Amino acid sequence: MRLTDISPIPALTPLDGRYKSQTAPLVEYLSEPALNRERMRVEVEWMILLANGFEGNGFQPIVDGVEPLTEEEQAYLRAIPETFDDEGIKHHAAHEAITHHDVKAVEYYIDDELDCAAEVLGHETQLSKLKTLVHFACTSEDINNLSYARCIKNAMEQVWLPTVHEITDHLVQKAEAYATLPLLSLTHGQPATPTTLGKEFAVYVYRINRQLRHIEAQEYLGKINGATGTFGAHLAAFPHIDWLAVSREFVENRMGLTWNPLTTQIESHDWQAELYGAVAHTNRILHNLCVDVWMYISRGVFAQVPVKGATGSSTMPHKVNPIRFENAEANFELSCALLDSLSATLVESRWQRDLTDSTTQRNAGSALGYSLLALNNLHGGLQSIHPNEAAMRAELDENWEVLGEPIQTVMRACELAGVEGMEHPYEKVKDLMRGHRISQDDVERFIDSLNFDEQTATRLKVLTPATYVGIAAQLLQYMR
């Protein structure tokens, strides 16, 4: 039995196979049918603008020989993409099988719909005579660049960003819940100045939110200016029209994008490189979070909630593997690899046009799909962990040497104030604490051996690894 004999043919990639349910929300915006539907929206809105004008030209037809479309006719045109279903997909594919050109197939698809207009509306309409208006003065890239921009914009705003916000909201909850929960820090893998678990979560919230502000302010550029960006065909047909104003109106007010007035045949894709760079940066921050949490689990700071019936190891029944975080790591890496490639290749085009971007842009869905899959895994992983407070206390109690920092710093302050016997504070504390474990008694004896005043000595003796966390909890106010 050949797998290719199965109908439908099994998915080649895990995004459309094993993980299909998790990446399905992006199908609405970044699949091939979604792109073709958006192309239809661009085409019919261009027809409506050309026929009905806009405020800047007094709502007069932009092209001669066309009557303004009625509300009913406009609704009919706008229904073409909205009713693009499985039969429509097959219909478009039939045209493309002949044209070998997906945008031309969209044009013919709309032509077919115009042929049916009178029958569907139940009366004569000029729509059946407006095939010439479809794709008027356009090059395929006029349609494609606007369609891709709208698809990607919607995917980001409707799927990717809300998913990241869910994670940041969850991290905020954890940060606030554990704001004062002391945690032994490790710098260079060695015990260091304690922090709080909440403050460490807040660090990630702050980092992620900075990137989200960049992404939410991202421009999505579009152009509609002809074969090489000169409006040559437009002016040849209607030299009296202010095509710059028409183009700007269409891109900004009809398509909801930022108008790019200066392009070759293609929109230059710089906005895509900017966006993908910011998404990749966010991926890498979240990848760092996955690695940190994985290591916290490994050292016992976090305990995992077992999933009933799930197998952690095929041979070791006791294990609860941090698989969600490991899956998230891998998928963030795949997403970044694709996003980096997109960012690097899309900003280049030979002279006025080459087609390298055509096949490259089709992978935007995969790039964001792997990121979405990673986000879902990370979110699930974060929901399955909770602090192991007993283990955290034990770590702190075993590392009194971390109080060497405050003691030697207070000694420095005393030396500056002229207190005798406080010289070489760093070296004295190092001799006591470096390279071996010490106890609370050792710390107190060392404090007593020095010429501290009673108030300072008492203040230092009150310190423990669990209370030496500075203003960690107060810092949470800056994470949003």
TrEMBL record:
Pfam families: ASL_C, Lyase_1. One of its GO terms (molecular function) is N6-(1,2-dicarboxyethyl)AMP AMP-lyase (fumarate-forming) activity. CDD domains: PurB. Residues 349-469 form the Adenylosuccinate lyase PurB C-terminal domain. It comes from the Bacteria. Pathway: Purine metabolism; AMP biosynthesis via de novo pathway; AMP from IMP: step 2/2; Purine metabolism; IMP biosynthesis via de novo pathway; 5-amino-1-(5-phospho-D-ribosyl)imidazole-4-carboxamide from 5-amino-1-(5-phospho-D-ribosyl)imidazole-4-carboxylate: step 2/2. Keywords: Lyase, Purine biosynthesis. One of its GO terms (biological process) is IMP biosynthetic process. Residues 17-328 form the Fumarate lyase N-terminal domain. InterPro entries: Fumarase/histidase_N, Fumarate_lyase_CS, Fumarate_lyase_fam, Fumarate_lyase_N, L-Aspartase-like, PurB_bact, PurB_C. Catalyzes two reactions in de novo purine nucleotide biosynthesis. Catalyzes the breakdown of 5-aminoimidazole- (N-succinylocarboxamide) ribotide (SAICAR or 2-[5-amino-1-(5-phospho-beta-D-ribosyl)imidazole-4-carboxamido]succinate) to 5-aminoimidazole-4-carboxamide ribotide (AICAR or 5-amino-1-(5-phospho-beta-D-ribosyl)imidazole-4-carboxamide) and fumarate, and of adenylosuccinate (ADS or N(6)-(1,2-dicarboxyethyl)-AMP) to adenosine monophosphate (AMP) and fumarate. PANTHER family: ADENYLOSUCCINATE LYASE. This is Adenylosuccinate lyase. It comes from Bifidobacterium dolichotidis. The lineage of its organism: Bacteria, Bacillati, Actinomycetota, Actinomycetes, Bifidobacteriales.
